């Protein structure tokens, strides 16, 4: 197996970063930065698709959080829920369970392996569930609020044996 991880950060901070490849097609700087970043990611994916290794390559695009530029989205309707963009391209798995799942970062680990063609006994690894399976994620099973509450509980075992264990 081989993995390549890339990070784009031009859209990460308020207003974004205008690189030399960005145009000036939009009135707002952040609009230009978003368009530029999207265009560059699109070009990269198109390039990958033309390579000999594409047939054996899963491309996974992950967002880590919605934009932090609250002022840019100030006119967005109050009932609109902004979400991060995540997509698995050219996954080795074809399934009906591939859209609009409620999930956490825990589920990315088994899902990435499954997208690469790894068979996962029971469809679960650690706290994560393979999103291509029909198994419920912890977020689907408990709801995000309850899952966050459960994850915040104190574990005496963890504190004693892991966090403050004598090496």
How is the largest sheet built, in terms of strand order? 1-2
Main sheet characteristics = 2 strands, antiparallel
Summed up, the helix count is: 5
H-E string: HEEHEEHHH
Q: What does the overall shape look like?
A: globular
What percent of residues adopt helix (DSSP H or I)?
A: 25-40%
What multimeric state do the chains show? single chain
Beta strand count: 4
**Span between termini:** 32 Å
Question: What is the residue-averaged pLDDT?
Answer: 92
The secondary-structure class comes to: mainly alpha
Q: Provide the β-strand percentage band.
A: 5-15%
Number of domains: 2
Instruction: Determine Rg (CA atoms, Å).
Output: 20 Å
State the low-pLDDT regions, or none. Answer: none
Structure summarized in a few sentences:
The protein has two domains: 1-90, no CATH class; 94-167, no CATH class. The chain contains five helices and four strands.
